[in-house]
């Protein structure tokens, strides 16, 4: 089911019911970019991985959200899916103007998949974080309390006086004529509108109401409405207040769905879901914390039972049969023996069917992820002789996979997951070295250098440096001794390299961050030093005078300089 | 005429011809955002105005370009328009991945005008600056020169060995079977594709060619092609090189049109065109300079004859009759007496007609701007008795308006334009004051404070400060004396306020920017100071020893300390 701005309000109860009856939920998202800044390196820790993605998750926008609720149909004896494909776009209406970043390649990719950008920007459902929502609610409450007060008057500049008078005369005419109940004032810029608003309110307070109306095409006009009874004013104000609250609710929008998912406490499944979770937390709950452990706590608190099918498929018994865990490839692998995709139905218009084939639409990808999950869960259950078990967050079968998000870029280096509910893997990096090499070197020269120790993985850092990892890790002990003495190359253990990098970055942080403190201390020190320098200067001058007086060679009253003079100069 | 990626190449000669035959060109653009950072204040100088817009012009993207060429039809005795509405989107294909910023309100606005975002992201024509183009041309030349060399080998990790062997066996089979000329390898991730590419090239070098192909939906597959003769390889390489150059030309894309406009040297008209010019220069020519005077030079060099219809309409004889210079309002004003919009035709499918009504489509807005320009030019010519004059960059009628871009946010404070071809206006700011006031004050309190000096314009800076400008400028002299002594308020002349702001910002620039230099100097100074301090310390110690030796009260060998000692301590 496609959900956009105009059907969001009516879809909300359906969504709530789907979440309530679901055995598990599957999510998938699309964003305007992936990485902003340094990309993850193959040897990064889960914590470094988080810091690499953090900036992107804050700067890029979430524009599509797929939510697929799988529930058991007792009559049909099969799973059913209710799937929602939401188009999202945070609107500035209530003062939540948003600046966001896009990566051209990401939009290009989405475009090639047939992604509908017009639906995003024209019909997207708004969203906001909890702190923003709280602030807006407080502001609106305050505004409605104080709106009875008169606004401050703006002086009418001379060049607009004639026009304002003209319009006021027209309004007078409209009131006196008593032919129609509304009149519109067009063709004025925003400043003139403000002046008219103020003047008409002041002059015809009890006769007309005035409101600024935004037409469909975003043109603003002023509407003057005749007051026919005192109730008119009251009703008008009450309606206006109500409309403002409705607008606020609409602006909170999709965040409500995200919070329902969180509050359900149900198993939430995703495929390669780290970025999905980062964006979900950052855009609908709170800005992502800068500290990794706070993030883990925050995430585990909002989504205590997560399962990443990409991680699941990277472990036995799936690992050996899954060549590529790209979602479509995984689905195709799990469609053939010894695996099988179970039958999953859907009510007309409420979910997807396998024939739909809408890859990279968030809703469809969530649905396919759910099918993969059921196939892998079924396979594991059959292996344990539990033929007809339904997935459950508390089942032993799923326990090894829970709260572990796949880290595709470090998986090959023993850091395959981020554990949101406990300690992360801490793989050894003893087999990794930082190599500085001559400018003309290519990958082959590095392979050559390391050839006595078997094959290596090379990741270039700069033009003349790279991280090099041995495939035969047990060989690591001999590398430094054997290669360090080579001409033109310099080799560091990975741990030393990381320590140096860390020191450099914290030193430059200190240099820029604490510059003020340093400057104050310097000034203080310079004052003291200045006194000393003055003292020395005076001493030298007196010494010279004494020298001149006594015509050399000895100036006994200045023993220090005298000694220096006697020993080194004369 | 709508121009997108697929018809750009064939449209290019038409565009070139339109520019050649035109009397004048009109441009209009749409971007993904307007202001990033501080907005312009009403009292800013043209230079400060530039700095306010600079960041946005660099960070936001240009997504639509309207170019309207007006040429004289001697048979019909009227102007004709050839108008092109270009959808633009810089693609990452040749390594020009672009990060760009969007402002949600801007996209919301464009969306409401019926803007087609899908055309931008899916069919947009690419573009790039000249330095990027030069670099890419050099890179490609270098790449094609060196591509004959063998690529460096990547070690095949153990887990992929079986799969790679399997595929190589399939390729062997394909070669031996000799049934078809092509075979595709699917379902592998990017790393496995790289391994296969390398292995197949190495093992079957003379039997097959291998290429990585991107399908319409951005899926990549490997294609293995049978080599039937030696020419196959040569042709294949020649074709590949040619394709790469074509791709580069496509990526340069719209920049070619922008450069044609510049090279034509013709009169270029726009409405409120400062941002249009900033984006045009920054995206198709060179990144905007950080220095204002360099920008003026650069701009004047690229577009020597510019005319801004918003500026034109703000001067007599139009000023008094134009209430709002919003393009649509201006057009409507110029449609009625004493003005008149001339008849402008177009060839079928090549230009707009007045009935089209596609406001906020860049091409249509350029067309309407051209009509407004012709109407205003006609009016001026008629006033001079030159009934049938055609606009010309050298005519006296247009001279006062050339190279002056309208500054809408400072126009009311005597700074209505930026003069690209000469000195900017330097309006007095003697009537402006910086006021610091108590927290609970509102606009009315400020009006009250200044009431002895007539009406004021107030622009809030922070919660407790504002810039206040007198309408009766001649009163300025008395303000400071009369109001400075008031309790709770502080008043500064605008010039003093600006100087303070400037000092603070340059001081903090120095503090952060030159921190390194300062640190080096400090270290040097500290070394000298340390020697001096050591000297003084030694002196004091020797003095003490002498004192102890001579049991006080006089230590004649240390005259300086002795004197201090005798005078101040004993």
UniProtKB/TrEMBL annotation, chains A, B:
Domain Poly(A)-specific ribonuclease RNA-binding: start-end pairs: 422-498
Keywords, A to Z? Membrane, Transmembrane, Transmembrane helix
Q: Which GO terms describe its molecular function?
A: metal ion binding; poly(A)-specific ribonuclease activity; RNA binding
Q: Which CDD domains match?
A: RRM_PARN
Task: Mark the transmembrane ranges.
Answer: 524-544
Q: Which Pfam families match?
A: CAF1 (PF04857), RNA_bind (PF08675)
Source organism superkingdom:
Eukaryota
Q: Which GO terms describe its cellular component?
A: cytoplasm; nucleus
- Which InterPro entries does its entry note? CAF1_poly(A)_ribonucleases, PolyA-riboNase_RNA-binding, RNase_CAF1
Q: Which GO terms describe its biological process?
A: nuclear-transcribed mRNA poly(A) tail shortening; priRNA 3'-end processing; siRNA 3'-end processing
PANTHER family per the UniProt record, alphabetical: POLY A -SPECIFIC RIBONUCLEASE/TARGET OF EGR1, MEMBER 1, POLY(A)-SPECIFIC RIBONUCLEASE PARN
The name under which this protein is listed is Poly(A)-specific ribonuclease RNA-binding domain-containing protein
